[in-house]
Amino acid sequence: MIGLVAFVSFVGLICAEQPFNHNVHNERVIGGNNAPPNKWKWQISLQQDAYNDGSYYHLCGGTIIDSLNVMTAAHCILSMDASTYRVVAGEYNLYQYDGSEQFIGVDRITVHPGWTGDLGNGNDIAILRLSQPVYDNGYVAIAELPYPGETMPDGFTCYITGWGLMDYYGTVPDILQEAAIPVVAHSVCSQPNWWGSLAKQNMVCAGGDGVISGCQGDSGGPLNCHTNGAWRVHGVVSYGPQGMCNQVTKPTVFTRVSSFEDWIFSVL
């Protein structure tokens, strides 16, 4: 257990300590680029007013799964006090007001009952019930989800998106980042020189080439894959290696959405 704690880092909980715009503070996807505006419409920024002073901090990403609910990672929930959080839908540039944003409070937090706080045990998923519905202003959309149990083959190209760190030195983005990232089959990711027993069947691994990865601030955000004729959110950013995020044979690990759809719809 000591080794696990030392080796695995929360991919997104270290972001609440650097200032930022329209009453928000922020902490890129490594190897990524600026995403085109209005492309990943289901991506949100999960923010928290941890000190009850009206100043919000970007904690994590998330995905709009219906007009009143957002999916994120369980480890992004630092407090069960829903009133301290808000969701920003239609966000693009965290440092300026674009006119596309919808700032919405959180009414209820539902964390998966199998979440223990240990990333290696999985079940790193939570649903946030919003205080009011997101509306179609042309900049938001409800995500399509995969078929229950659906998996992707080794090397299948997906996209990771988020406002997480862009490099080991802590460079932060203002604009939403995207990067093409190949899926790593469970039979590979679970090998001892990869993630070994930490890679469970209900997780998706992607990356591990030492170039592209998620990093702090990307947690809870989507793994976007074009399957069955549509972009679908197949994963929720969960964990990666401590320190330098883009390490060879240590891909970003996502909660596999297709393994949790019964639970997701039971919450909705």
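the 2nd protein, sequnce then structure:
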Amino acid sequence: MSEQKRTYSRVEAFFPGRLRLLAPGEENAVYQGCFGCDAAQSAALRPKGANMPEALLDFLETINSKLDMLLSLANREHLESTFPVAVNIVEISGAGLIFTADREFALDDRLELVLFLSQFPLQTVGVMGRIHRRDDRAGNSAWAVDFTSIREQDREAIVRYVFQQQRERIRESKQWN
């Protein structure tokens, strides 16, 4: 029996995503990120040493985050048309994921996914992958995907998500003990 060696921790999850199947020979990702969907991006825009009152900077950041939210909602319609298949992510790590969907896939199907790690504030990541296994989850097909291409910032966001989920589960287990 072979022993699996994992590079990344994984966690059970339940959040939505969208996918599109890649055509043979297609290598380039359509999804290039969502500006304003990551709170860290907005915080990085605050001017250093600006000669403005803190209250005004706070107000402008609030307005900026609200505009980012409106833009990301408008962007969601575009994502749904470009990535036509709705999926539910049931397990994730920095190296891959498992999802369920209302349709069947084939082993070795190549696909591009957009994952909605957080709805508010909206945080999305894009990955390209290959289906390498079909599982059965509560009588439904679940598809295991290995990431074949992922931007480093998206992998870091997934790893942060996994660690956050693990911390929450540890806290919950300590409360019940």
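The domain at 10-23+32-176 is CATH 2.40.10.220 (Thrombin, subunit H). The beta strands are 10-21, 85-93, 96-101, 110-119, 122-137, 140-150.
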